[in-house]
Amino acid sequence: MYETIQSLHSYWAFLVLFILIIATVNAIYKSATGKEYKATDFRLSLFTLIVSHIQLLMGLLLYFVSPRLQLFGEIGMGAIMKDPVSRLYLVEHPLVNIIAIALITIGYSKHKKKLTSSAKLKKIAIFYTLGLVLLLSRIPWSTWLS
Length: 146
Hints:
The chain crosses the membrane at residues 12-32, 44-66, 86-109, 121-141. It comes from Gaetbulibacter aestuarii. By secondary structure, the chain is mainly alpha-helical. The chain has helices spanning 2-33, 39-65, 71-74, 76-82, 84-113, 117-137, 141-144. The protein has one domain. The protein is elongated, with a radius of gyration of 17 Å.
């Protein structure tokens, strides 16, 4: 079960990054050029929100069925924090990615309350970019791409 969830989580991450990059670049471009916010922009930002939340749910499930989780009881938090690999998988990756998804959610929620195109696109651009940067910063690249 663990390997299946891990594989789904890894492959779904490609979709999340792809859609998030498209939504972010779209919002930045339209915001910078003064283009109008359209229904396709709403759908793109909503789809990004949905796929990122699915990724979060898979990640949380993966976290709690992970054999690494037993390290908390076996070696303790101090030893986990001293080991870069354990710290990445048990602390940094989950925490930072939860924050990233929260920022994406906040950006989506805030953009809906704005009345003008520029304000809507600006909120999406800011919060989705912050979420993207955080996601990219905590991906375990060495294991993910191998």
